[in-house]
């Protein structure tokens, strides 16, 4: 698959940020699932923020993709929050009957970040050294 | 993908409100997927409607697949024979003003949806 067809995943401290700015086609959505799983494992991220403010609509495929991502992240010990859903997309989603099982949502990136775990002490290399030094 | 953009343009031209544009495009995406999964691919036609002073947009999906044995059943939420969430038909119907399913005389199914301004 081409690089241009992949959605970038940014590391933001102990979190990963995915900003979906284009209407995804199916292969792109599947590639995102794989890429994100890899990045969570690689970075040990505890939280994933998915910004969907660029999405003009969510159909059942994209809805299921978001649920699947949240489920995959969960078993890799990371929480997912979907942020920035447009009001008209929310209205359409409910009409369509999609419930996004397992997906937590927040209105803004800031509020989404507040819902995710804060960096823990054991992620700080300085403290690890202190522990091994021991009494 | 290109089809969705074209349908969005048509919905704008028909003067639909943003929420109705979004519902229509979502329904089209849902039905297009249906056509590919159940009908083995097909043809999508879309255009503007004019009925007196009323303006609208329509889309038809025509496939040569096996057809739908029980349309009423297929419109029930949660009913699915494919890999989706089973929202395809019943969900799409709630997003548009007019929804019509019929057998294609040459085999397969024709679905027609329309939304008016």
From TrEMBL, chain A:
Protein's name according to its UniProt entry: STAS domain-containing protein
Transmembrane segments: none
SUPFAM superfamilies: SpoIIaa-like
Lineage of the organism: Bacteria, Bacillati, Actinomycetota, Thermoleophilia, Solirubrobacterales
Signal peptide location: none
Domain of life: Bacteria
Database matches in Pfam families: STAS
Residue ranges of every copy of the STAS domain listed in the record: 5-116
From TrEMBL, chain B:
GO molecular function: ATP binding
Top-rank lineage group of the source organism: Bacteria
Domain Histidine kinase/HSP90-like ATPase: 20-113
Keyword Flavoprotein: no
Keywords noted in UniProt: ATP-binding, Nucleotide-binding
Transmembrane segments: none
Pfam families: HATPase_c
Name the UniProt record assigns to this protein: ATP-binding protein
Organism, scientific name: Solirubrobacter deserti
Lineage: Bacteria, Bacillati, Actinomycetota, Thermoleophilia, Solirubrobacterales
């Amino acid at each position: 698959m081409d690089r241009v067809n992949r959605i970038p995943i940014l590391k933001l401290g102990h979190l990963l940020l995915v900003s979906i700015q284009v209407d995804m086609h199916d292969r792109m959505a599947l590639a995102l699932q794989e890429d994100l799983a890899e990045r969570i494992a690689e970075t040990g991220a505890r939280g994933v923020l998915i910004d969907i403010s660029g999405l003009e609509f969510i159909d059942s495929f994209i809805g299921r993709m978001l649920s699947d991502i949240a489920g995959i992240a969960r078993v890799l010990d990371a929480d997912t929050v979907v942020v920035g859903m447009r009001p008209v997309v929310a209205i359409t989603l409910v009409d369509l009957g999609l419930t996004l099982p397992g997906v937590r949502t927040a209105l803004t990136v800031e509020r989404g970040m507040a819902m995710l775990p804060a960096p823990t002490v054991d992620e700080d290399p300085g403290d690890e050294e202190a522990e091994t030094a021991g009494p | 993908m290109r089809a969705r953009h074209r349908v969005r343009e048509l919905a704008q031209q028909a003067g639909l409100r943003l929420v109705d544009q979004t519902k229509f495009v979502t329904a089209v995406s849902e039905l297009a997927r249906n056509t590919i999964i159940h009908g083995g691919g097909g043809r999508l036609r879309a255009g503007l409607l004019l009925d007196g002073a009323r303006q609208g947009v329509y889309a038809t999906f025509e496939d040569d697949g096996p057809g739908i044995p029980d349309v009423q059943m297929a419109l029930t939420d949660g009913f699915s024979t494919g890999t989706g969430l089973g929202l395809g038909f019943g969900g799409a119907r709630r997003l548009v003003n007019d929804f019509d399913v019929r057998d294609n005389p040459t085999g397969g199914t024709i679905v027609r949806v329309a939304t008016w301004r």
